[in-house]
Amino acid sequence: MKFALKHIVPTSHPTRIAAELQCLTLAGGVDNVMGVKYCFRNNDHVVIVMPYLEHDSFVDILPYLSFQEAKEYIFNLCKALKRIHQFGILHRDVKPSNFLYNRDLKQYALVDFGLAQGAPGTQIEFLKVLQAKKQGSCTQSKPHTISGNIPVPKEVVLPSSTKQSVKRHWSLSQINPGNCGKEGLLGTGSKLRSVFGVKSFNVHSTNPNEVTNAKALLQSKRQPTTSDVRSKKTVPAKNTNTGAVSKTANTCPEQLTCDCFAKAQICKICMERTKPLAARAGTAGFRAPEVLLRCFNQTSAIDVWAAGIIFLFLLSGRYNFFSASDDLNALARIIAIRGSQETIKAAKQMGKIVLCSHEIPAKDLRKLCEELRRVCMLTDPECEEEVKKQRELQLEILEKQDGWFVKQIDVNPSDTAESLNSAMPVTERTDFNMNGWDNVPDEAYHLLDRLLDINPSTRITAEEVLVHPLFSDLR
């Protein structure tokens, strides 16, 4: 009997190792979730022993899979996701290399819970401990804040008239520290704002009186009167570390607001703010929009999005779509497929603002996948030169020089095949037609659209996927 061994690196935290083991013990062993046989520890080295599943490389078999096999793959993946979500486990790293697949035996296994996170009400006790530690570390280090990022000393010397203005405009009823004190000032008329995920925590009021008063406040800070200067009193620092106090005072901006709201730019004040401490663990190309936008409340919908990305690979025959060097480019690639207006609307529901330089229409998923799949049908995966040409042609379909995806063009399928034939010497192939790729039902693209819903609150769940009409023959 064969076993798979996972050697945990010695730098891993013991609680994290225990959480991974508990996920495998409680949720594993059924419904395509990997189980555990034994666990050994020697000093700081830990080895997890699991059943061995001989599996195929997803990239290698992708060109050969039939539509029926693609259906079975995504069905069994969502079956595993439903299982772990019932235990309140967020996998956070769903991708083909973590969902083992034996094509001959029709066996599947979801593996690697090293990045797993607990959902509210999780049944995994050690995930609760990790959550409590994370929340506790944020709470202990939470300073008094004005903008949500800049620490402010408890005793601040201000002119008497300015003190009154500050008390009037920045009362405690307007302060909402949020997560780890990073939400900033969210009074009446305030909005959480971001430019492609970089937050700006300034107050933008629609009340003309408040705007006038705020301008007066800024003017008074820029031009203090003589009486104000005389009324200032020196307050000795209670902290013996004067260097730290001086540094804190110097980093505090002179203005409480900035002018970059709803503009495609970021001012110096916003650049100096610390980035939101939102979870973003995972693999590039599989992160959901709410992860790229640094949302704090992330749910099991992030795993469903990753399943949608895999389904997009299966339907289009292309691996992969949204891999990018950073979160902003990854978000831009998602916008290019799902549309700018749809992304802006969903981001607003998440408390974010996304700006686009120009409007990008949402792509027709069926047309996009059929064009890319057609390139695969005309190439021989065994021929290295043809595979290289295939990738180049797919990139021509997907991208322009500026990185945005091209607009949809209505073309005759036969014309496309002829143009591809003339572009490259290919081997005649008909196996894809026999494997069902010439007759993909609308239900498949309906499911893909639901899996890749930008808004996590309306995205389909793993449990709902299993009862989708596409899988009526698998239930």
UniProtKB/TrEMBL annotation:
Ranges where the record places region Disordered: 220-241
Keywords for this protein: ATP-binding, Kinase, Nucleotide-binding, Serine/threonine-protein kinase, Transferase
Protein name: non-specific serine/threonine protein kinase
One GO location term (cellular component): nucleus
Enzyme's top EC category: transferase
Domain Protein kinase: from-to ranges: 1-471
EC number: 2.7.11.1
SMART domains: S_TKc (SM00220)
SUPFAM superfamilies (UniProt xref): Protein kinase-like (PK-like) (SSF56112)
